[in-house]
Design a protein that fits this description.
By secondary structure, this protein is of the alpha+beta class. It contains three helices and eleven strands; from the N terminus they run ααββββββββαβββ.
Length: about 190
């Protein structure tokens, strides 16, 4: 209960901070605010677009995004995947950081004992013109390697839908959607969290 109160209070502080930062028309602030208003809540999702050969999800798993931690400039969203009945992969957390005129996404990947996976904290910054409901993040190493923009695309329709996915030239190559119309029970902390 105390954690929930801290998160709710943090969400309110984030909203007040952003509203006081200037025009609501600023798409970076607006997008961050659209995410922040869901802080403290967890939502169920589903796989919508799957990459050929990708075996991370089969498409029938229970997926939960938990807008767990919020500060003035950072939102942490653990991504929980039910692998078997009552067994969960809690290894992933999406970290969105507000840098004034841009946002940054990082992927915190942990083992069950809390230690870092070999491939962790990768990510990128806002790419092209941001939008209050859609943001694209460029992944420079892959973009340079492939010669086309590669990275991540996030979308949010507050109170309706949150989308996370990978992209190639602004088109989704992998995508999960979360239903923001109904909250679910908050999951346990992600691996490596206190």
């Amino acid at each position: 209960m105390q954690q929930q109160l801290r998160t709710t209070g943090s969400a309110l502080a984030v909203l007040l901070f952003i509203n006081g930062c200037g025009s609501e028309e600023d798409p970076v602030d607006q997008f961050f605010q659209n995410l922040a208003q869901h802080c403290g809540n967890a939502y169920e999702g589903e796989l919508v677009v799957d990459r050929p050969g990708d075996d991370m999800l089969e498409g029938n798993e229970l997926l939960i995004a938990h807008f767990r931690e919020c500060t003035e400039d950072e939102i942490r969203i653990p991504f929980h995947i039910e692998t078997d009945p009552d067994e969960w992969d809690r290894s992933r957390t999406w970290i969105i950081t507000h840098h004034g005129d841009s946002l940054e996404i990082r992927h915190d990947h942990r083992y069950e004992d809390g230690s870092d996976e070999e491939n962790t904290m990768y990510g990128g910054f806002t790419h092209l013109a941001p939008d209050g409901n859609r943001h694209e993040f460029l992944y420079p190493p892959r973009t340079e390697e492939e010669g086309v923009p590669l990275g991540w695309r996030l979308e949010i329709e507050p109170g309706e839908r949150y989308t996370y996915g990978t992209m190639r030239e602004s088109e989704f190559t992998w995508r999960v959607d979360f239903d923001l119309t109904e909250t679910v029970e908050e999951p346990p902390p992600p691996w490596g969290s206190e």
